[in-house]
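Quick one before lunch.
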Amino acid sequence: MSKTEGPLTLISATPSPFARMNRIAMTLKGIPFQLQNEIPWEKDTQTPKYNPLEKLPILLFPDGRPPVYDSAHIQEYLIQKYADREPRLLTGDMDLDLQARQIQVLAEGLMDAFVLLFFEIKREKPSAEWRARQDRKIDGAMRAFEDLVKERKKADKQYLVGDDLTIADIAAVCGVGHIDFAGAREGWKGSYPTLAEWWGAMNEREGFKESKPVMFDLKESVV
Ligand SMILES: N[C@@H](CCC(=O)N[C@@H](CS)C(=O)NCC(=O)O)C(=O)O
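Model of the glutathione complex:
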Protein backbone atom coordinates (compact mmCIF):
# COMPACT_ATOMS: atom_id res chain seq x y z
CA MET A 1 0.00 0.00 0.00
CA SER A 2 1.46 3.39 -0.96
CA LYS A 3 1.88 6.20 1.53
CA THR A 4 -1.13 8.05 0.16
CA GLU A 5 -3.52 5.13 0.56
CA GLY A 6 -4.72 3.48 3.69
CA PRO A 7 -6.92 4.32 6.58
CA LEU A 8 -7.27 7.52 8.52
CA THR A 9 -5.49 7.68 11.86
CA LEU A 10 -7.12 9.09 14.96
CA ILE A 11 -4.80 10.22 17.72
CA SER A 12 -6.80 9.28 20.76
CA ALA A 13 -6.44 8.46 24.43
CA THR A 14 -8.12 5.38 25.88
CA PRO A 15 -10.23 7.35 28.41
CA SER A 16 -10.85 10.42 26.20
CA PRO A 17 -14.56 11.29 25.87
CA PHE A 18 -13.67 13.80 23.12
CA ALA A 19 -11.96 11.17 20.99
CA ARG A 20 -14.73 8.69 21.79
CA MET A 21 -17.20 10.89 19.91
CA ASN A 22 -15.11 10.62 16.74
CA ARG A 23 -14.47 6.91 17.23
CA ILE A 24 -18.21 6.24 17.47
CA ALA A 25 -18.98 8.34 14.38
CA MET A 26 -16.32 6.55 12.31
CA THR A 27 -17.35 3.10 13.55
CA LEU A 28 -21.05 3.70 12.84
CA LYS A 29 -20.31 5.04 9.37
CA GLY A 30 -17.95 2.17 8.64
CA ILE A 31 -14.99 4.47 7.91
CA PRO A 32 -11.72 2.53 8.14
CA PHE A 33 -9.40 4.08 10.72
CA GLN A 34 -6.61 3.17 13.06
CA LEU A 35 -6.18 4.41 16.58
CA GLN A 36 -2.96 5.90 17.85
CA ASN A 37 -3.39 5.94 21.61
CA GLU A 38 -1.40 8.54 23.48
CA ILE A 39 -1.22 10.32 26.82
CA PRO A 40 -1.32 13.96 25.69
CA TRP A 41 0.09 15.30 28.96
CA GLU A 42 3.29 13.23 28.81
CA LYS A 43 6.66 14.08 27.23
CA ASP A 44 6.67 11.48 24.45
CA THR A 45 3.24 12.38 23.05
CA GLN A 46 3.01 13.19 19.33
CA THR A 47 0.16 15.67 19.85
CA PRO A 48 2.25 18.92 19.75
CA LYS A 49 3.64 17.78 16.39
CA TYR A 50 0.15 17.94 14.90
CA ASN A 51 -1.74 20.39 17.11
CA PRO A 52 -0.11 23.47 18.67
CA LEU A 53 -2.81 23.35 21.33
CA GLU A 54 -1.36 19.96 22.37
CA LYS A 55 -4.75 18.32 22.59
CA LEU A 56 -6.29 15.23 21.11
CA PRO A 57 -8.25 13.91 19.24
CA ILE A 58 -6.42 14.65 16.00
CA LEU A 59 -7.33 13.15 12.65
CA LEU A 60 -4.40 12.32 10.36
CA PHE A 61 -4.64 11.63 6.64
CA PRO A 62 -2.48 8.99 4.94
CA ASP A 63 -1.44 11.47 2.22
CA GLY A 64 0.02 13.90 4.74
CA ARG A 65 -2.62 16.63 4.34
CA PRO A 66 -2.83 19.00 7.32
CA PRO A 67 -4.29 17.27 10.35
CA VAL A 68 -7.74 18.10 11.70
CA TYR A 69 -8.15 18.74 15.38
CA ASP A 70 -10.88 19.47 17.84
CA SER A 71 -13.44 16.73 18.16
CA ALA A 72 -16.35 18.87 16.92
CA HIS A 73 -14.41 19.93 13.85
CA ILE A 74 -13.58 16.29 13.12
CA GLN A 75 -17.27 15.34 13.50
CA GLU A 76 -18.19 18.00 10.93
CA TYR A 77 -15.63 16.68 8.50
CA LEU A 78 -16.83 13.08 8.89
CA ILE A 79 -20.46 14.11 8.41
CA GLN A 80 -19.79 16.09 5.25
CA LYS A 81 -17.13 13.88 3.68
CA TYR A 82 -19.10 10.68 4.31
CA ALA A 83 -22.55 12.18 3.79
CA ASP A 84 -23.56 9.21 1.64
CA ARG A 85 -23.02 6.76 4.49
CA GLU A 86 -25.66 6.01 7.12
CA PRO A 87 -26.17 7.11 9.80
CA ARG A 88 -25.99 10.68 8.59
CA LEU A 89 -25.61 12.01 12.14
CA LEU A 90 -27.34 15.32 11.38
CA THR A 91 -30.91 15.81 10.24
CA GLY A 92 -30.37 18.14 7.28
CA ASP A 93 -32.78 20.64 8.87
CA MET A 94 -30.88 23.77 9.84
CA ASP A 95 -32.79 24.49 13.04
CA LEU A 96 -32.71 20.90 14.27
CA ASP A 97 -29.03 20.69 13.45
CA LEU A 98 -28.44 23.87 15.43
CA GLN A 99 -29.98 22.04 18.39
CA ALA A 100 -27.84 18.96 17.76
CA ARG A 101 -24.67 21.04 17.68
CA GLN A 102 -25.81 22.91 20.80
CA ILE A 103 -26.16 19.63 22.67
CA GLN A 104 -22.68 18.69 21.49
CA VAL A 105 -21.39 22.00 22.89
CA LEU A 106 -23.09 21.20 26.20
CA ALA A 107 -21.45 17.78 26.36
CA GLU A 108 -18.04 19.22 25.51
CA GLY A 109 -18.46 21.82 28.24
CA LEU A 110 -19.20 19.02 30.68
CA MET A 111 -16.02 17.23 29.60
CA ASP A 112 -13.95 20.43 29.83
CA ALA A 113 -15.24 21.16 33.34
CA PHE A 114 -14.35 17.63 34.38
CA VAL A 115 -10.77 17.96 33.04
CA LEU A 116 -10.29 21.33 34.80
CA LEU A 117 -11.58 19.85 38.05
CA PHE A 118 -9.47 16.70 37.69
CA PHE A 119 -6.25 18.72 37.51
CA GLU A 120 -7.29 21.28 40.10
CA ILE A 121 -7.74 18.49 42.62
CA LYS A 122 -4.19 17.31 41.86
CA ARG A 123 -2.71 20.65 42.93
CA GLU A 124 -1.06 20.94 46.31
CA LYS A 125 -3.56 23.62 47.31
CA PRO A 126 -6.70 23.29 45.17
CA SER A 127 -8.78 26.42 44.90
CA ALA A 128 -12.20 25.92 46.53
CA GLU A 129 -13.68 28.62 44.29
CA TRP A 130 -12.38 27.01 41.11
CA ARG A 131 -13.61 23.58 42.22
CA ALA A 132 -17.06 24.98 43.01
CA ARG A 133 -17.19 26.65 39.62
CA GLN A 134 -16.41 23.43 37.75
CA ASP A 135 -18.76 21.46 40.01
CA ARG A 136 -21.59 23.84 39.12
CA LYS A 137 -20.93 23.32 35.43
CA ILE A 138 -20.92 19.54 35.80
CA ASP A 139 -24.14 19.55 37.81
CA GLY A 140 -25.74 22.09 35.46
CA ALA A 141 -24.95 19.98 32.41
CA MET A 142 -26.15 16.76 34.04
CA ARG A 143 -29.43 18.47 35.03
CA ALA A 144 -29.83 19.86 31.53
CA PHE A 145 -29.34 16.39 30.04
CA GLU A 146 -31.87 14.89 32.46
CA ASP A 147 -34.43 17.56 31.49
CA LEU A 148 -33.77 17.05 27.82
CA VAL A 149 -34.15 13.28 27.94
CA LYS A 150 -37.33 13.65 30.02
CA GLU A 151 -38.80 16.01 27.45
CA ARG A 152 -37.93 13.64 24.60
CA LYS A 153 -39.35 10.66 26.48
CA LYS A 154 -42.61 12.56 27.01
CA ALA A 155 -42.75 13.16 23.25
CA ASP A 156 -42.10 9.42 22.76
CA LYS A 157 -38.77 10.07 21.04
CA GLN A 158 -35.76 7.81 21.34
CA TYR A 159 -33.15 10.34 20.20
CA LEU A 160 -32.32 13.81 21.48
CA VAL A 161 -32.99 15.61 18.18
CA GLY A 162 -35.22 14.55 15.31
CA ASP A 163 -36.06 10.92 14.63
CA ASP A 164 -32.62 9.45 14.05
CA LEU A 165 -29.32 9.21 15.84
CA THR A 166 -27.24 12.39 15.63
CA ILE A 167 -24.00 13.83 16.98
CA ALA A 168 -26.11 15.07 19.91
CA ASP A 169 -26.79 11.53 21.14
CA ILE A 170 -23.15 10.56 20.64
CA ALA A 171 -21.92 13.63 22.55
CA ALA A 172 -24.36 13.15 25.44
CA VAL A 173 -23.43 9.48 25.81
CA CYS A 174 -19.70 10.34 25.83
CA GLY A 175 -20.03 13.30 28.22
CA VAL A 176 -22.27 11.54 30.73
CA GLY A 177 -20.25 8.36 30.24
CA HIS A 178 -17.12 10.12 31.35
CA ILE A 179 -18.71 11.33 34.56
CA ASP A 180 -19.84 7.76 35.20
CA PHE A 181 -16.45 6.24 34.32
CA ALA A 182 -14.50 8.69 36.46
CA GLY A 183 -16.85 8.30 39.42
CA ALA A 184 -17.19 12.10 39.44
CA ARG A 185 -20.81 12.05 40.67
CA GLU A 186 -21.57 9.21 43.01
CA GLY A 187 -25.24 8.27 42.90
CA TRP A 188 -25.87 10.21 39.66
CA LYS A 189 -28.13 7.46 38.37
CA GLY A 190 -30.45 8.05 41.34
CA SER A 191 -30.36 11.82 40.90
CA TYR A 192 -30.99 11.68 37.14
CA PRO A 193 -32.97 8.46 36.62
CA THR A 194 -34.39 9.26 33.17
CA LEU A 195 -30.96 10.18 31.88
CA ALA A 196 -29.44 7.08 33.48
CA GLU A 197 -31.95 4.78 31.79
CA TRP A 198 -31.48 6.41 28.36
CA TRP A 199 -27.69 6.50 28.70
CA GLY A 200 -27.50 2.87 29.90
CA ALA A 201 -29.32 1.64 26.79
CA MET A 202 -27.42 3.89 24.36
CA ASN A 203 -24.06 2.99 25.85
CA GLU A 204 -24.60 -0.70 25.08
CA ARG A 205 -25.47 -0.19 21.42
CA GLU A 206 -23.25 -1.37 18.59
CA GLY A 207 -20.64 1.28 17.90
CA PHE A 208 -20.88 2.62 21.45
CA LYS A 209 -20.08 -0.38 23.59
CA GLU A 210 -16.73 -1.01 21.85
CA SER A 211 -15.40 2.43 22.79
CA LYS A 212 -16.11 2.55 26.51
CA PRO A 213 -13.39 4.50 28.36
CA VAL A 214 -10.35 2.66 29.70
CA MET A 215 -8.06 4.37 32.22
CA PHE A 216 -4.41 5.09 31.44
CA ASP A 217 -1.55 5.43 33.86
CA LEU A 218 -0.63 9.11 34.08
CA LYS A 219 2.96 8.93 35.37
CA GLU A 220 4.20 12.48 34.81
CA SER A 221 2.98 15.37 36.89
CA VAL A 222 0.87 17.84 34.93
CA VAL A 223 0.06 20.63 37.38
N1 LIG B 1 -11.88 21.11 22.61
C1 LIG B 1 -11.05 19.96 22.45
C2 LIG B 1 -10.74 19.37 23.83
C3 LIG B 1 -9.87 18.13 23.75
C4 LIG B 1 -9.18 17.79 25.07
O1 LIG B 1 -9.28 18.49 26.09
N2 LIG B 1 -8.45 16.67 25.05
C5 LIG B 1 -7.66 16.27 26.18
C6 LIG B 1 -7.64 14.74 26.27
S1 LIG B 1 -9.20 14.10 26.74
C7 LIG B 1 -6.22 16.71 25.92
O2 LIG B 1 -5.67 16.39 24.90
N3 LIG B 1 -5.62 17.46 26.86
C8 LIG B 1 -4.26 17.87 26.80
C9 LIG B 1 -4.10 19.31 27.23
O3 LIG B 1 -5.11 19.95 27.58
O4 LIG B 1 -2.99 19.78 27.21
C10 LIG B 1 -11.77 18.93 21.58
O5 LIG B 1 -13.00 18.89 21.60
O6 LIG B 1 -11.09 18.21 20.83
